[in-house]
Amino acid sequence: MSSNQREIQRKDRRAEKERKTKKIIWVTIAVVIVILAVMRIFEFNVNSVKERFTDEEGNFSISEGVESTNFPYSIDASENVVLRSINNKICVLTPTTYTVLDSKNATVDYTFDHGFSNPVLVSSGIYSLIYDQGQNHYRLDTTSDAVYSEASENKILCADVSKGGTAVIATTSSKKLCEFNVYNKSLKNTCNIQLSEGYIIDIAISADGRKVAAAVVSSDNANLITKIFMYDVSKQALASQTDLPGGNVADIRFSGSALYVVGDTYAGVVRGGEYKPSYEQGDIVTEYYDYTASGELVLAFGGYTNSTENKIALIRPNGKVKRELDFNGVIKDISASGNVVSILTGNSVTGLAMSNGEVREELATDDSTKSICRIGSVVYMQRQSTIDRSDLKND
After folding, report:
1. N vs C: which end of the chain shows fewer Cβ within 10 Å?
2. Are 196 and 212 in contact (CB under 8 A)?
């Protein structure tokens, strides 16, 4: 090979190498430009993600900002389930268990198997009293611990508990027709009353535990007569006796010194030994009822059973109707919290402001929803064998 040919080849190799070097440089510059552009475009998103997953101390945590919830919460039954708010907790009584759930994320705060054949739940303040109606056992619990579990000598008819944890247990009696006993939190018996006037069908104890009211049914010439017997616990003595209208008693409950009486076809209050009607006997058919935190009665009623034209009434402890709202639809349940009452029908949950009837919310549901419980602005729903929250989307 001549020297000229070798020189030409060296120049060609040098030129090729320079072209490759320039290509690499330009590709590198292009990649850098693309990366810078992408970083600029997504700068806001990167910063947002960083802020979301950075705690108050500046530490990065992938779990920060992610809400963890056990809703819908599965329960062990679909029938005969009681859903109730106790001290802002969700309390669920089923035929086999009692469970207290954190209302935010459905974590279990407290649970046990009660073993009762016919469990009934009553509550006040932080206390829940569960008794086996028609049997002997009952127990007192808070939302986090057991207070006691006990058995009565006679069969339990009904019971109630005060805000301080004082319980009244009405039973059959070996001496007379029936009796009731009052127990403090230490299970000390502070009052025993024997009754021969009739049978106790419902019983209530005042918030301070000083008064007990018993709805007593007797018969006169084949007619059923219902009276309210009011007792002073400290004196273990009858304070007053009040006749009630005809019909069945659905519920009695103290609000201060007044006693609400909810009948199947009437409603009113007992004050100072006298009954004052809010709705006369026969004027209404009671559908459902609830009580506000301030102790007022919320009553849903119509003109007949399963009426589609109903009213929601707010009744004061003096017996006067404070507010009356119209509601169209067959009512399955109601639950009051604050100024709002939630009303369950076959296809929706409607929240009404008791002050003016304004619709605060309309939640779609179906026949699988059997009962509701409102706490603040949230509605909890029992759907078959689950408990769900209205503000969580689980569809």
Report:
1. C
2. no
How far apart are alpha carbons 100 and 84 in whole angstroms? 10
How many CB atoms are closer than 10 A to CB 245?
18
35-45 per-position pLDDT tens digit:
445 444 444 34
Residue 275: enclosing H or E segment and its boundaries? Answer: strand 274-279
Q: How many degrees, rounded to 5, is the angle at CA 165 between CA 380 and CA 211? A: 110
- Convert the pLDDT of each residue in 261-307 to its tens digit: 999 999 999 999 999 999 999 999 999 999 999 999 999 999 999 89
With vertex at residue 141, the alpha carbon angle to CA 138 and CA 147, rounded to the nearest 5 degrees, is: 90
Say which DSSP state 350 is in: E
The 73-74 sheet, strands edge to edge? 73-74, 386-389, 378-383, 369-375
Strand intervals (E) in 102-198:
108-113, 119-124, 127-132, 137-141, 146-151, 156-161, 167-172, 178-183, 189-195
Q: Is 100 helix (H, G, I), strand (E, B) or coil?
A: strand
- Looking at beta carbons, which pairs linking 135-138 to residues 24 or more positions away fall under 8 Å? 138/167, 138/169
CA 143 vs. chain centroid, Å, equals 13
Please, which residues have CB within 8 angstroms of residue 202's CB and are 6 or more apart in sequence? 158, 214, 215, 249, 251, 252
Q: Provide the CA 115 distance to its chain's centre, in angstroms.
A: 23
φ, ψ (nearest 5 deg) of residue 88: 65, 20
Predicted TM-score (pTM) of the model is: 0.82
User: Counting Cβ atoms within 10 Å, is residue 273 exposed (0-12), middle (13-18) or buried (19+)?
Assistant: exposed
Those residues whose C-beta lies under 8 Å from the C-beta of residue 203, and which sit 6 or more positions away, are 157, 158, 159, 160, 168, 170, 180, 212, 213, 214, 215, 252
Type of residue at 288? Y
